[in-house]
Amino acid sequence: MNRDYWTIFFAAQLCALLCSVLGVYLNMRRQSMLVDVLSHSALPGVVLAYVIFAGYSAIGVSLGAALCAFVSVLAIEKLGSSRGRIKPDASMAVIFTSMFALGMLLIAYFAERTHIDVQCALFGELLFSPFWGDLSFGGLLIPTVLARLLVAGVVVFGVLRLVHGRLLAASFWGEGAALMGISPRGMTHVLAFLASLTVMVSFELVGVVLVIALFSIPPAFGRLWASSWRGMMIGAAVFAFVSTALGLAAGWWSGLNLGGTIASSQLLLFLASFVVHKLRYRLRRPVEALHGG
Amino acid sequence: MFADLDTSWYAIAGAVLVSSVAALIGSFLILQRRSLLVDMLGHSVFPGVIMGFLFAGWQRSAGWFFLGALLAIAIGFALFTWLAADPKVGDDAATAIALSGMFAFGTVLLSRIQQSAMGAQAGLNTFLTGQAALISKTDVLIFASLLVVISALFYFNRTRFKIWAFDENFAAVTGFKTRKLEISLYVVVAITVFFAVQAVGVVLASALFVLAPLSVLLWVRRFETLLWVSVVVSALGAFGGARWSAADERMPAGAAVITLLFLFFLVSWFFSPAGYFKSSRLRRRTRKTRLTEDLLKSWYYFYESTGSPEGFSVAWIQALTRIHLEDRSVRPEKMRSLLRPWVQHIDDNGFALSAAGRERAEALVRRHRLWETYLVEKMGFSPDHVHDDAERVEHFIGEDLEFRIEAEVDRDVDPHGKPIPGRRPVGGGGSP
What we know:
In chain A, about 80% of the residues lie in helices and about 5% in strands. Chain A is mainly α. A two-stranded antiparallel ribbon of chain A has the order 1-2. The mean pLDDT of chain A is about 85. Chain B has two domains: about 10-275, Orthogonal Bundle (ABC transporter involved in vitamin B12 uptake, BtuC), CATH 1.10.3470; about 280-355. Chain B has 18 helices and two strands. A two-stranded antiparallel sheet of chain B has the order 1-2. In chain B, helix 1 (about 5-30) crosses helix 10 (about 200-215) and helix 1 (about 5-30) packs antiparallel against helix 11. The radius of gyration of chain B is 30 Å and the shape is elongated. In chain B, about 45% of the residues are buried.
């Protein structure tokens, strides 16, 4: 295995790890579909960045995308509430589709100035990520893709370490959190910010749709098998590691799209574990009835 | 009959018909809180389209396309239902998993096709942005019959659909079988999703289902009205959007339609009776009343524990807000202005309530404790579960309801042992 393979391997694993850890928070808050919203509503921001910076610029695209994603989170919050006429799911559906339409409108009118690679945005280009070049840190050459993921990882884990307790309080006991002086809305925004940051660094690797798989499947696995937060985190991370490794191996062996094989292997592994989980309950129920009677 | 019409008219007619059907079904999905379902089904189309390409031998063959897509939608939907039924997975995660999983299979299949030198670029682009211009006379006829079938389905089952849409649990408890309705509805949904994806692309297809009904929902109160008005709105939006895109060749039809519908949604959101301005004014008013009543109540608690009606100050209330008030961000000046109608005098040292203020405070506490007593005595609640409910209900209980509850309960202390203020003896009689 040469250096390029290791670059791809570590990029994919870092990406999967980040997504699965944040995914645990989203899963427990019943907000798995938020990632779908974030990744789709980033489109106008990406297009505007292309227009303003006259071509691709990594920082411009990330900034524009993150800004748009964040604005749409605020809009969703403002529009929907479980007590109002517009329910949260409907407000999500309205905002991300409308943002996407806005993006297509911008593409239609600035088409000559943007050369957005739709294929890349949809399916990612994990395979070509080593060709983004290297960054030099005092003589140490690190592939750009890894450097970006590492920076995102440091930010995500750093912020999570700082706010973890408050985030949990705000997620599951809003009133109590408010009494302790924590703003539940503020915590929601922190989480949305971290998630959009992660989506921004991941979507160029695995595509805007498959990033949803990375966010939602490992935590769902963790939730099936663990009964504590810690267990769910570890379960999700281990699942992400194993399924990503398997997916990469399958992709390299067959030459298929790497993002696709990773997400497919996650789905297949999850379905297998889901069947076992179902069987486990089916087997256990009569025994419990026996004890209970 | 259509022979002499320009082909762009087919596109317009097709867009109008698809949007009408989508709006009709969308009204339903919104009420069932399944707005994101269409997004999931739309993404499931992807592997089906690619499979269609594989079987059809690289030609645009509507039959294989359609079969593949329907099959894929069915698989995606089955996956979703299977996963969502497990409480440990839940609706949201099931949607995300089915959506991304099906799309992943599509991605893998697509890269397989691209390997074998034949591109599926046209299919992919159709999937992404839709091809309203390719709508043919046959398509228009199919859409029209779809609209007729769905309208008939809704019309002949309107009562069942209504019960099912508003209260699934009630439908289940009353022994009302929703299975057949569910199957017929989702078959229709699948077919419509397929055509909507063809016309406007995968992401905008889900907008086509939700935008018009949601805007209309902000204006109307009746289910039947919701259905037909959203069909009209959606059809108008589609007509306008299709004309716009026909006039300006840069503009894709899907984005044009959705932009128009979104503008209508924004107008509804800001200016409709249930929209932002009206409802926030109403919210502010109710919030003010509740806040005032909570302040009066905290005076009563002070009075009750110290036995002195004087010396209770805004600073005291601030200390108590953390316990008694729902809204913790109220400034002292605001509290003073809210209390002003109910006090004799107010300064930094404290305030004295007027007779009306005391009466009001007492009435609130009385209603609170009466409700708690009623819940425990008559409804069999346990004493530690009734406070939160009473905190809400006390603001809404009127005098006649208060009398009726009073006649029902026997005790004159609440479940926590506190006396019910101003309790009249059982069986009427107005003496204090």
